[in-house]
Amino acid sequence: MPDHVIKNKLSKFLDSDTGSVLSFLNKILSTLGERYIEPTFNGQFLVDSKLFGEWQELITEVPPLFGICSALRDFYTFPNHNNRAETKLYFERFLRPQIRYSALPSIKDPRLDELVERLKLDDLHIHLNGSSEIEIIWRTALQKPRAFAKELKGASNNKLVKELYSAEEVGLTQEKQLGKLNVAKALRVLLLNEVFGQDANIVQKTFFKRDEDETKQAFKIQLINIEQVNKLTELSNSFNVSEIYNFDFDIEGSLLAQLSHIEDDIKTPLALESFYLIAMFGYLKKTKNEAFGHALYYYLLIKCQFNRLVVQQTHQFGFDQFQKFTVNEMRSTTEKEYQTRYHQLNYSDLGDLDYLEGRFAPSRDLPSNVDRLRTILADYKHYQTTEQRANNAIIDKNKKVNPYSLKDLLCHKANATSLKLSLIAHFIKRPDKHINKLVNGEIRLSWQCRHYELRNQLEKTRRSLAALQEQYIDLSDYLFGFDAAANELDAGPEVFAPIFKRLRKAGYHNFTYHAGEDYVHLLSGIRTVAEAIDFLDLKTGNRIGHGTAIGIHPELWRERIGNNIVMKQGERLDDLVFAYKHFCDHEVNGTLLHLIEREIRTLSALIYEEQYSPVELYDAWELRYIDPILAFELKRQHGSYLRSEIKKEIDDILKTKKTNKKAFEIFEKYHGVNNADCAIRYQELIEVDMTCPCERAFNYETFRILQKYVIGKINRRHMAIESLPTSNVRISFYEHYREHHIFDWLGVTDEKGMEVPVVLGSDDPGIFATNLRNEYAHILLTLENDIGLSSMDAIAKLEQIVRNGKIWRFKKLSY
Questions:
Q1: How far apart are CA 769 and CA 783, in angstroms?
Q2: How far is CA 748 from CA 116, 656, 719, 744, in A?
Q3: Which has the closest alpha carbon to 617: 660, 568, 674, 673?
């Protein structure tokens, strides 16, 4: 927008007559609370349904706790913290019901509430790392600065992290970010000293004296103190501010001692954070100290920027942008423990979740896997114990009162949590660094096959898990299934096919796979989902994660991708071969087939130095589930393998080789086993003109043919798709929930033939600032407001998704 438009809006909002930071910040916070947050009598906080989408976008930049604490400040009287009874009642009535473990409010809808209470929800796609909300990470950063700094600096040379920081602020680095956290820590101490020192007599020291004879008075922030904080935090020993400032540096310790009479399960870290923030906001409203407003504004701005570095922003699209948040290590210190996350994910006292399929990345060595699982399961046991203890305390308390009194009749009816935990081991997709060196001319003689290093790592990880299962026979009570995650542009399903096959032979049957989430070309995404189904031999009860490519509206994708795409010419060839084969089966217009075949032969000649036919290339493509390490004796001769299952796998490969000689010839060239030239040419980039005759021939109907073909595969095999609306809106091409493909899959649009069983997950709820209840809320609101379903039809569709979760959850004794 032009500058004058922005300036006029700011002038109207900021009350430029006074130029007061106090009035500005008060107005901002009041607007935030009044516009979005609706407090209820029982202490819960709700967001107006009409503003829910707007709120969800806002909290990617502004921590949601700001709105909640502002509403609490404006609606309820803050207690005198010297009064033990008042503070305890405040924690129990206003902090415990909503923000004991999660700062994410939801909508008020009795239909959704009843559905959740009656059936409970199943989160069937969630990564345990990446789920912590911003408030807990913020507290960790301030309370464990050295551990946090150590983890943060571990990612200092990561290219993706450098991009994330520089996109947020020019010149921002990990070092500068740590400096800002030092500032925030010092500001926090100043703010708490002034807020609680004025009337609590916790702090009665002179912070800044103009004259030696000046009478001592309670601490009060002045602008020079903020300047001193800035200077102080440039020093290496930036946390020993008490040597310079004469005030209570351990103010939080003092306050915590005053709150010792409140039970720990009520006085949680998040509740304490809320308590301090409400006190700051309340003091802001009544103070005349402009410097306090400056200090608080400064503190909140630093926290907002911190939020933007742990929560994906609405302008950041694609998996590469998302991945920056997974590798910046800002969550690492916090997520070394899991108990807080179990509480957070179950959301409310009664609990939203019945079943949590938590995904974790196994290691290649047995001791690391033992340590990781011990932490995950020990914290789950502690979580269960904590919930049971809290429930027992309520029961014991109620037993002591007259059983026929009104108090007894109104007693709390909550039972201990019923949250069940299962674990999904997900293998990590990694780029083939070896082939990049090959393309760059850095190596020649050591080339093996595509993803040689990753294939070996995956096999080691599989064997480590097998050894773990042998050592701990009860592991099957928790480890229910397997997945492969991370950037699918780095490694396709073919790389994971051998280990999935060996896991299936070992008796495992629960498999899912991230596919079609992010893609260079829509054809590539559709093909990847088909490869996952076929190469991994997915069957009844198995699932596909995301599957966006087989749902997204082709015209929406084409509109937002632009007029040209740069991609590997080998992938372009694979896409066209895949499309050609299935267009032949559907008797598509001959002109389109002619255009595709002409480009296939051209690309085949460029890559393989021979114009193979589309059928020959498709036959070779179908062989990619085979392990090339075994097929081409890259580690040892066939006869030297001792394990019977590997010998059987080799025998099957030899039989296939005899009956598919031409396909195996192309398969060998594809891997560049004896001559790496084909593999190098496969990687070469080309520009695909989206207005060329071949691309123009790919219209809405032809893309839908391919999407429906893959959906048909899923339906015939009685599989389901894990849909993750907020994740897809952040990562994919969508700008609004109403554009999401799940509504075609649910069969509530005019698009026919797209129906498929759908289950729901929250993916990385911390990175996307969401939870499973809010994912259901988004769908419910969109079904009514955008799709136009009636009230009861909308909730019926929601119930269908919930019941799908019960059916397709992975079970210990499932098929």
A1: 22
A2: 22, 44, 20, 6
A3: 660
